[in-house]
Write a structure and sequence with these properties.
Length: 174
């Protein structure tokens, strides 16, 4: 797993600092926030990867599709009692899937609160931490942009790892 993640992490750091020389101008605070966003995105991806049972989610997705087909068939045939039963089954399966997908969020909420508190106390007074094509950005705006970029790169690494480890699972996002 470390080999799969090292390439996107290196790419993100390289891109961030090359862009700093071209389009963006980052202050020291901007560079620190970029590295923090990479770390937080890595933590979030790692936690999601470890706590999410991808096979179970793929199974639940398949079950939901089947139940949706049964619901559509019941509606077409005019059997409203069966349609209501299938609707209740879909709702129950959706809630189960949602509970399963909330596990990673529960594990990362407290670290986010702590890190954001620290970032705010350390960089709120910094003013502009990044300048993008003449537009100034504060710490929060720059964190959002760099976190989105890190998240996209880590999602690509996750998809590559998943393709290599489980070819039969058909879930594209977790």
């Amino acid at each position: 797993m470390a080999e799969s993640l090292s390439t996107p992490i290196f790419a993100f750091i390289l891109i961030a600092f090359l862009i700093d020389l071209m389009i963006f101008h980052l202050t020291h605070a901007g560079r620190v926030i970029t590295l923090l966003s990479l770390g937080i995105s890595s933590l979030r991806s790692l936690v999601r990867f470890r706590l999410t049972d991808r096979e179970k989610i793929a199974e639940q997705n398949k079950l939901l599709k089947e139940r949706q087909k049964m619901l559509d068939e019941a509606k077409k045939s005019g059997d409203m009692e069966a349609a209501q039963k299938h609707q209740a089954d879909i709702l129950e399966a959706s809630l189960d899937r949602m509970k399963h997908s909330l596990k990673p969020m529960a594990a990362t909420t407290i670290p986010y609160i702590i890190v954001f508190g620290w970032i705010k106390s350390a960089f709120a007074e910094s003013g502009t931490v990044a300048e993008i094509m003449g537009y100034s950005m504060g710490w929060f705006g720059w964190y959002i942009i760099s976190s989105m970029a890190a998240g996209m790169l880590l999602q690509k690494a996750y998809v590559r790892m998943k393709r290599g480890s489980s070819a039969g699972v058909e879930d594209d996002r977790v």
